[in-house]
Design a protein that fits this description.
39% strand, alpha+beta, 6-stranded antiparallel beta sheet, globular
């Protein structure tokens, strides 16, 4: 069964378990998918003490990891889960992130034959926009989880 069919046939709990087992950095963030529809993905993460920088605010690297994962998942949903790699990810940090849980969403702006352009954002526990992103993903010719 292809990844797309598998993921559409299981619940969010199973998807989150798979992500946390296969990508330990996401477990480290406390990352969990809360929405996954065609062309869109949203997740929440707590950003524990080890993801904070001086001053107690969320580190920009943690924000970028969450955006990359979430926007990448959104890109997969419009390509029947054909694997892809991030070509470019630009993030503008707008406010310090200090109040969890943080909500990250990504959505497809345009999907071409081999490239997809996505937007994303991160909001804090009060709903304040703390980061905005624009990125490009390149589709590979294999399914997620297949070898080279």
């Amino acid at each position: 069964m292809g990844w797309g069919k598998w993921l559409r046939s299981v619940d969010v709990y199973a998807i989150n378990s798979f992500i946390q087992e296969s990508e330990p950095i996401m477990a480290f963030l406390g990352y969990r998918i809360v929405e996954l529809t065609e062309g869109r993905a949203c997740a929440e993460f707590d950003g524990g003490q080890n993801t904070r920088r001086v001053g107690g605010v969320l580190h920009g690297g943690a924000i970028m990891v969450a955006l990359d994962e979430t926007m990448g998942l959104a890109a997969l949903t419009v390509n029947d889960w054909e694997d892809q790699v991030t070509v470019e990810l630009k993030v503008s940090f707008l406010e310090p992130g200090s109040k969890p849980p943080f909500r990250v969403c990504g959505w497809v702006v345009r999907r071409g034959k081999r490239l997809a352009v996505l937007e994303g954002e991160v909001r804090d526990g009060d709903g304040r926009l703390i980061a905005k992103a624009l990125g490009t993903w390149y589709y590979l010719k294999r399914r997620v989880g297949e070898g080279r």
